[in-house]
Amino acid sequence: MHMTMTHKEPPPCFGDLKIVFPESGEGLRSSPKTCLACEHKTACLKSAMGGREGLKVKEEALDRAYAAGMVGFFERWSKKKAFHQKAADKE
């Protein structure tokens, strides 16, 4: 038996970090319930976090981890350097 898979086109919000992973009033981020129900959620979040804005989000999380004592100075420095290199590659 041959099954035909139908793939819907991603919605217009696909990969838009401000929509799919918005910042709350407390500075934390989470996906809205509508995104969690979407069949494209995983690819969408990967796309959003893979862009320049996503690198900024990762850098913010690293700074919070450093401030909380969960990451040392050299690890933070090394990861920030890698983030900036990736951002430069995206230009």
Describe it for me?
With 91 residues, the chain is mostly helical. It folds into two domains: 15-22 and 29-49, no CATH class; 51-91. Helices cover 56% and strands 0% of the residues. The chain contains five helices and no strands. Helix 4 (52-67) runs antiparallel to helix 5. The protein is globular. The N and C termini lie far apart (48 Å).
List keywords for this structure.
91 residues, mainly alpha, 56% helix, 0% strand, disordered N terminus
Shape: globular
Overall number of domains: 2
Instruction: Tell me the series of helices and strands, N- to C-terminal.
Output: HHHHH
Secondary-structure content class: mainly alpha
Beta-strand content: under 5%
Poorly predicted regions are 1-5
Question: How many separate helices?
Answer: 5
How large, in whole angstroms, is the Cα Rg?
17 Å
- Overall strand count: 0
Query: Span from first to last CA?
Result: 48 Å
Largest sheet: none
On the 0 to 100 scale, the average pLDDT is 88
Tell me roughly what share of residues is in helical segments.
55-70%
